[in-house]
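The passage that follows is intended for readers who have already worked through the single-chain material. We present the inputs for a multi-component assembly, then the predicted structure in tokenized form, and finally a short commentary. You are encouraged to pause after the input and sketch how you expect the pieces to fit together before reading on.
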Amino acid sequence: MSKEWPLWEVFIRGQHGLSHRHVGSLHAPDAEMAIKNARDVYTRRNEGVSIWVVEAQHIAASSPEEKGPLYEPSNSKVYRHPTFFDIPEEVGHM
Amino acid sequence: MYAQLVKTAGTGVKTREEMSDEERNFQDRVDRDEKIEPKDWMPDDYRATLIRQIGQHAHSEIVGQLPEGNWITRAPTLERKAILLAKVQDEAGHGLYLYCAAETLGVTRDELTEELLSGRMKYSSIFNYPTLNWADIGAVGWLVDGAAIMNQVPLQRTSYGPYSRAMIRICKEESFHQRQGYDIMMKMAQGSDAQRRMAQDALNRFWYPSLMMFGPSDKDSVHSAQSLAWKIKIDTNDELRQRFVDQTVPQAKYLGLTIPDENLKWNEERGAHDFSEPDWAEFFNVIKGKGPCNVDRMDARVAAWEDGAWVRDGLLAHARKKSATRTAAE
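Having made your guess, compare it with the prediction:
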């Protein structure tokens, strides 16, 4: 059995109330140590107020080959953007 | 630069006709400044070269802690000690960001460590020079980190996403390193005669090794041409070295220190400084393992790895036991 510590992906919520954001990864024996290490590696300059860690092997990801079927359908749906609709100026801000 | 003489895999830049469809598509993406991500198709040689380059860069950050760590217990004040400790901790962090970037290419952390400890992978030649006194810590921050920044700032735009993101984080932190070094140099240069002599002596010893950090001229290298085409190298070694000299000359002047090069002078026509090349024979000697501190540095890394084995194993055994107990309870 490999003696290498598992890989964890690290997500940090910054100061400004935003969502947790992926910042990088690190190795740690367990979740508790992963959070401690994440504190040392990724928040040395007050970058965060909250840390999530998840073992990299538990992340499922889409594959680059699926790009077409996954994202192309939204290309033709321009009406999902507010700029699709012309609102007369006299109506005012909408 | 922390990665020197990285051998680019392959035989040089292919013409579009020589490229396969996949290679052409890949090169087009690089040319459009799209980032290449871990799961995207990439040429095997691009992957192999990046593992070498990022790996060497990571090793340099880790080994680079040693010459500075040497002075943590002997820093002149508590404040300087805290600052140096923070700087050395940053270097460990930089090494970790880079190892993770390399791992996205399919190499494991243990493989990278093993390559370093066996001497198959290198780290920057600069860390094989000793830090003899406190002024050296100033010179390292000012010159060595200054040279590293020169290389790392353009690499933020490199084509490989994880490498680029690691570089962005590193560059944010690196300017603190250079400034703290210059701050030490200012204190020394404005101090007593003895302190000024120490500062000058540190500059004398670190100047040429700093110029060597960029590696020998590669303007005619087919391998560098390939790395430039793949955007894993953004500027040639000579361009970076020139930029470093031009930036450093006024900084030395402000300190009232003399750069140890009789041929150093402003060239109006080129709009840049002329300067002497470092002794490349010395450089190749250091790369081959015959620098002043090569043996010490490797011994320290091997000892750290071996002495830490029981901690790594113990924590892993504990984690596995805890996880087994949890599974049994479910």
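Commentary: The longest strand of chain B covers residues 265-267. Chain B has a mean pLDDT of 95. How closely did your sketch match?
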